[in-house]
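Readers of this paper often ask what the protein records in our data store actually look like. Below, we set out a record of this kind in full and without editing:
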Amino acid sequence: MTVVSAGAGAGRPRPTRLLADRVVEVVCRSLAAGGARAEVEVVELHRLAADLAQHAAHGRASLDLREAVAAVAAADGLVVATPVLAASPGELFDSFFAVLGDRVLAGMPVLLALHTGPHRPAPGLAHVLRGRLTGLRADPVPTVVVAGPPDRQSTSDGDAGELDARIGRAAAELAAAMRPHRH
């Protein structure tokens, strides 16, 4: 089974990418526990920023953008990790999903992971983002992983229980949704 990790984070260090990697690792373990072998492909949206802008302005997709879309289309499941900036996802998130459209995401099991700044996002934001994915005919799992600086601090202190539980629950939901999903 193929899991694509699409991360919309930028900057160094890349906390959104670290969150995505952590989630994908648990998804792979969940799949393995069910007897499935997972292959992972990573799509870093910050590397496609110029390609996404060109597509928005001229309607032309570069080779890199077409390859990213093809990777998502061929996936059995998708982990989407995006930073939350000023109570909304990053622009790369919106741009990439506009390119994908509903044909590519139809029926695709998706796990949404949000990396927040120092403040937690508005309570309804996860619902809004899940709604956007549903509007593209994707099949988002019920649990949304939300992590921020306090979670990174507790991880370094060795007390990551709550975040680990959310990741484990969401990963199990994605693995279960991926098993019957076939192209």
Notes: The chain has a mean pLDDT of 86. The chain has seven helices and seven strands. Residues 15-33 form the longest helix (19 residues). The helical segments are 15-33, 49-58, 63-74, 91-105, 125-135, 149-156, 161-178.
